[in-house]
């Protein structure tokens, strides 16, 4: 069985962009605004001789009204249940939000192996800007840039390491 990596995080942090990097495909719709990807998407990727499956999340019907957060939470839960490793994506530029805390709390409770990744960190890879994310209580923070392809190889190495 190929290991399954699930990308979770609040809208607009760059999950679908990372999905495309990890799968070298255009399966997920990359939105210039939050929430265009309407369904979970599955893709396949390979690094060296290691193959893996990636699940993108974040889709919900735009007209779901008050159901939006519920639907997002449901998708996250399903993806986490299917995953061997969870990649929790936060926004290095946007900083921590209440939703990040909620997701972190959920992930700590579930106890699946989780990698905390601060995306959009191009130009600040050595910076201290990401230190606030240690607050989430999920261990080390890995700075990456999905859009610029920085830190992706290291991320896959770390994600597949325990498997
Ligand atoms: P999702 O809602 O989490 O799936 O986020 P998307 O992948 O749709 O990306 C949301 C926005 O962030 C888009 O405008 C992307 O171009 C942008 N984005 C994604 N990755 C990066 C990155 O590494 N750096 C920067 N500066 N922008 C990014
Ligand atoms: Mg998306």
Please count the beta strands (DSSP E, at least 2 residues each).
Answer: 6
Biggest sheet strand line-up: 2-3-1-4-5-6
CATH architecture: 3-Layer(aba) Sandwich
Instruction: Indicate how many domains the architecture comprises.
Output: 1
Question: Which radius of gyration do the C-alpha atoms yield?
Answer: 14 Å
Q: Quote the CATH topology.
A: Rossmann fold
The largest sheet is: 6 strands, mixed
* Helical content band: 25-40%
Number of helices: 4
- Categorize the overall geometry: globular
At the fourth level of CATH, the homologous superfamily is: P-loop containing nucleotide triphosphate hydrolases
- How much of the sequence lies in strands comes to 15-25%
Uncertain spans = 27-38, 60-64
- Ligands bound here? guanosine-5'-diphosphate, magnesium ion
Mean model confidence by pLDDT: 83
How far apart lie the N and C ends? 11 Å
**Element-by-element helix/strand order:** EHEEHEHEEH
Query: Helix/strand-derived class?
Result: alpha/beta
Explain what you see:
The protein has 163 residues and is of the alpha/beta class. It has a single domain, classed as P-loop containing nucleotide triphosphate hydrolases (Rossmann fold), CATH 3.40.50. Helices cover 28% and strands 21% of the residues. It has helices at 15-23, 68-82, 98-110, 152-160, and strands at residues 4-8, 41-47, 50-56, 85-91, 114-119, 141-143. A hairpin with a 2-residue loop joins strand 2 (41-47) and strand 3. The longest helix is centred in the middle third of the chain and has 15 residues, at 68-82. The protein is globular and about 35 Å long. The structure holds guanosine-5'-diphosphate (GDP) and magnesium ion (MG). Magnesium ion (MG) binds at residues 15-16, 28, 31, 37, 58.
